[in-house]
Design goal:
- By secondary structure, the chain is α/β, with parallel strands linked by helices.
- Helix content is 50%, strand content 14%.
- The protein contains eleven helices and eight strands.
- An eight-stranded mixed sheet has the order 3-2-4-1-5-6-7-8, with helices on both faces.
- α9 links the parallel β5 and β6.
- α4 packs across α11 and α5 runs parallel beside α6.
- The radius of gyration is 20 Å and the shape is elongated.
Length: 290
Amino acid sequence: MGFFDKLKKITTNLFSTFTEADEAFFEELEETLILADLGVETATEAVERLRETVRREKLQDQEEVRSALRRVLVELLDVGTAELNVSTTPSVMLFIGVNGVGKTTSIGKVARLLMLGGKRVLLCAADTFRAAAADQLEIWAQRAGCEIVRQHEGADPGAVLFDALQAARARGVDVVLCDTAGRLHNKANLMAELSKLSKIIDRECPGAARETLLVLDATTGQNGLIQARTFKETAGLTGIVLTKLDGTAKGGIAVAIARELGVPVKLAGVGEGIDDLKPFDAEAYAEAII
């Protein structure tokens, strides 16, 4: 069973009644893609690309058109590498996003993924504003079998990150995964906090490979896209972690994010288990939703 088999297929019924790639088919496809959360602009572009491919290659049968649509979606998703940059020791990943999207859970799962790849991982509990955030992250550190650096609730997030980077260098840690506060909705506060953390990384680990990953809940659909747009403006995102893809029939949001923001989805979650977060594979994803 493939990783994305839990995704809802968004065009199955459309192709089960397929007779020919006529205007009625393209109109229904566009409506289906919009309902699947590709958004109006992305759905329109996808259908226009498919229409042009069908005309140019003179495609007629169902499998040819389905395959062409799959290629179109993969092309729209191709906005950068899905690989995590862990090329230095230590490398640093900042996880950002609003509360409730599964950020802390995702960090624990990424830790597990990296450790299975042979990396030594350290978690940094720099979300010191939310009650019990560090406790939750510590539980995930235990599940993943990695170390954690934390302080008391209300501590300075920069001080926690400083301690974590010092510990990482002393212990020969490969990757530091840093949780951040999810309450910083105000752009100025968010920018100031992330800027401070960035300066600490520059000072303590100059030249370190760095990822700034936005965790998004796929079930929020187009609201997630609005969130991503705001965070991109303030945080310089390198990638998206898309959670709860199995809980929505609107998995097309990954295509909208890639096409409208130019930011690659790097990791995708399709379940509650510790191994249910994997590197994003555009080919497998497009195959699953079609």
